[in-house]
Structures are given as C-alpha cells and as structure tokens.
Write a structure and sequence with these properties.
This protein is α+β, with helices and mostly antiparallel strands and 101 residues long. It has one domain: Alpha-Beta Plaits, CATH 3.30.70.100. It is built from 3 helices and 4 strands; from the N terminus they run βαββααβ. The protein has a 4-stranded antiparallel β-sheet. It is globular.
Length: 101
C-alpha cells in the first residue's frame, strides 16, 4: 500500500471553496480504487495550510489513477473549480508507506 500525503497552501480567505474542492475529490479517489482518509482544514495555528491523505494498493495503481482522472468529467470539474476559485496557492505531494503493527 502507498499513501499520498498532500500539503496544500491555501488562500485563508477561501477556505470554504477549498472545503468544497475537498468534498469533490473524496468520492472520486474512492471511485478509482483508492481509499480517501480525508482532508484536514486549518483550525488552530497556521490558517493557510491544509492536508489530504489517500491510499492505493500500490504505486502502479496510483499511477493508473493519475492517468484515468485525465479523462473523467467529474475530475475535470474539480480541477476547473480549483482553478476558477484560486483557493489553492500551491501544494506538495509525498508518498508514504504505512506500517501496521
């Protein structure tokens, strides 16, 4: 299993837009065989940092997901929403391997 860890720098005046964006992606990741662990919004501390975590059975499955979302209309709507609202200023993507027991 591989977990994608996304750290977003968001516009602190557009947190509601970012929350809408996050709610768009959770079912999409699941639709393509991933497990979405949620988006994590600022609460205390920095008001412009948010996170998302989702897992796929393997890096190959994640890479297939990245190709598949390019052709999916709902994924394109989510990308367009983020571009139109400019709620995301930047992001970093890292991959982690979870350890259980």
């Amino acid at each position: 299993m591989i977990t994608c860890y996304l750290k977003y720098i968001i516009d602190p005046y557009k947190t509601s837009e970012f929350e809408i964006y996050g709610k768009m992606w959770i079912p999409l990741v699941n639709k393509f065989g991933g497990i979405h662990h949620g988006y994590f919004m600022p609460h205390e501390g920095a008001n412009n940092v948010a996170y998302a975590l989702f897992s796929f059975p393997s890096l190959a499955k994640y890479e297939q997901y990245r190709e598949d979302i390019k052709l999916d209309i709902d994924c394109q709507k989510a990308f367009d929403f983020a571009n139109e609202t400019r709620c995301i200023l930047s992001y970093e993507r890292s991959f982690m391997k979870p350890i259980f027991e």
